[in-house]
Amino acid sequence: MKAYILPSCSTCQRILKEVDWQGEVVDIKSEGIPAKVLDQLAKEHGSYEALFSRRAMKYKSLGLKDKNLSEQDYKQYILEEYTFLKRPVFVTADKSFVGNSKKVVAELMTHLS
């Protein structure tokens, strides 16, 4: 079980405490997310776009909102720049949870209990 988070993100820290996470915690800023894990997540969640954060400051500064991005583009941006990964990402033995919406957190809590 792994949680991919940004340690400086207060939302990530809050959710870790809220769900009483007992697994490994990976700093996506210093370690990134392995391409193999990203591929697995994209397969489970339907696309790389589903894992992509449009809230990242670089999304606007790079002008990405005006571009027509392909699945390969989404994958490449996430692998190159940690801020483009929706977070937190929780990976358990049989399921993964991406993002910080109340629905995702509730599903994770139910899954862990």
So, the CATH homologous superfamily? Glutaredoxin
Give the integer mean of the pLDDT values: 93
The global form is globular
**Sheet/helix structural class:** alpha+beta
Q: How many extended strands? A: 4
Please state roughly what percent of the residues sit in beta strands, choosing from under 5%, 5-15%, 15-25%, 25-35%, 35-45% or over 45%. 5-15%
Provide the CATH architecture. 3-Layer(aba) Sandwich
CATH class: Alpha Beta
Tell me the series of helices and strands, N- to C-terminal.
EHEHHHHEEH
Query: What is Rg?
Result: 14 Å
| Sheet with the most strands, sense and barrel status | 4 strands, mixed
Brief description of this entry?
With 113 residues, the protein is of the alpha+beta class. It contains six helices and four strands, in the order βαβααααββα.
Task: Set down the secondary structure blueprint.
Blueprint: E1 2-5, H1 10-18, E2 24-27, H2 28-31, H3 35-45, H4 57-61, H5 71-80, E3 89-91, E4 96-98, H6 102-112
Parallel strand pairs: 1-2
Antiparallel strand pairs: 1-3, 3-4
Can you walk through the features of this model?
With 113 residues, the chain is of the alpha+beta class. The chain has one domain: 3-Layer(aba) Sandwich (Glutaredoxin). The chain has six helices and four strands, in the order βαβααααββα. It has helices at 10-18, 28-31, 35-45, 57-61, 71-80, 102-112, and strands at 2-5, 24-27, 89-91, 96-98. It has a four-stranded mixed β-sheet. Strand 1, helix 1 (10-18) and strand 2 form a beta-alpha-beta unit.
Question: What labels would you give this structure?
Answer:
single chain, 113 residues, alpha+beta, Glutaredoxin, four-stranded mixed beta sheet, 6 helices, 4 strands, 44% helix, 12% strand
